[in-house]
Amino acid sequence: MAKHLGAKPRIGLLGTGPWAGHTHAPALAGHQGIEFSGVWGRRPEAAAALAAASGTRAYEDVDALFAASDAVAFALPPDVQAPLAVRAAEAGCHVLLDKPVATTVVGARKVAEAVEAAGVASVVFCTLRFAEPTARWVEEQAAVGGWFLGEAHWLGSLYGAGSSSAYAASPWRRAKGGLWDVGPHVLSVLLPVLGDVTEITAAPGPADTHHLVLRHSSGASSTATLTLSAPPEAAGAALTLFGAGGRAELPRWDGAVGAFGAAVDALIRSARTGEPDACDARFGLRLTEILAEAEAEAEAAVGKRAAATGREASEG
Nearest-CA neighbor of 13 among 82, 59, 78? Predict the structure, then answer.
């Protein structure tokens, strides 16, 4: 059974890495409408340090944190997050998930089903859907409609020459690349504006780069180039829509702490009203389905290329 939210909901945090330290913990500690109920991490010493810095307490037992919280936020690798999110939902906790929910469709579906079975609220923290002014821009462009084409690129330099980012040490990002790390951001904008994805073509580029061509339920199409390996000099992100009314460019946004605070507000609102948020676990599942299909398409393209090269070598 979903927990009832009091005047000041208790929200805990699972995760102690750079993302938790830079975004989740500061947002929860600074939110005047909640009680930051505690921190759990796979490394107890890291949980203790982050809790002390955030004015809350550390838990070594994750189920004890669930018991002490009305809701929990996640800052964990996706395939660590997913089974713990199922447990949190079963404990009645509303869940504020990170993107992607999981890197397998099975894992993401289990989360969505657990959320629905328990009747808890869920929000997936897709930054652009909660940051200002991008959140407002998405709503405005969805209302305008009539879009013909979308073009997006997210060129991260996490693995570019000279990078010193703390996120570069993340094993799951190294394994899954830009498709799974920044792909959810781009899709979280394209889907509400252009409609669900009905067809996917994907091709690999240099390093972890993926090029996507998408057909949407509105009839529009879009393209996206995603990577974490761009040269620092070329890094950047942009998304442009083209339609009967001209062009519209995604505005710049600044920082994630404020956006995460807005996601907390969205979770509380959903839990109190019973109305699903647009970025709920079911939406997170759909993102995973699209990314998994794109990944399979790109891998198939690599296989075809290798087979063709082998034939040419044997014929030569």
Answer: 59
Order of strands, edge to edge, in the sheet holding 94-98?
A: 58-59, 35-40, 10-14, 71-74, 94-98, 122-125
Report the helix count and the strand count for the chain, using DSSP H and E: 11, 12
Q: What is the DSSP letter of 100?
A: S
> Are the C-beta atoms of 290 and 101 separated by less than 8 Å?
no
pLDDT tens, residue by residue, 171-210: 999 999 999 999 999 999 999 999 999 999 999 999 999 9
Q: Does residue 110 sit in helix, strand or coil?
A: helix
CA distance 7 to 49: 28
Half-sphere exposure at residue 114, Cβ-oriented, CA atoms within 13 angstroms: 21
| Phi, psi angle pair for 203, to nearest 5° | -140, 145
pTM of this prediction exceeds 0.85: yes
d(CA 255, CA 28): 15
Q: How many residues does the chain have?
A: 316
Burial class of 158 by CB neighbour count within 10 A (0 to 12, 13 to 18, 19+): buried
Please give the C-alpha separations between residue 234 and each of 16, 173, 185, 295, in angstroms, as whole numbers.
30, 20, 19, 24
Cα–Cα distance for residue pair 4/206, rounded to 1 Å: 49
**9: cis peptide before it, omega within 30°?**
no
Bridge partners of residue 172, in order along the sequence? none
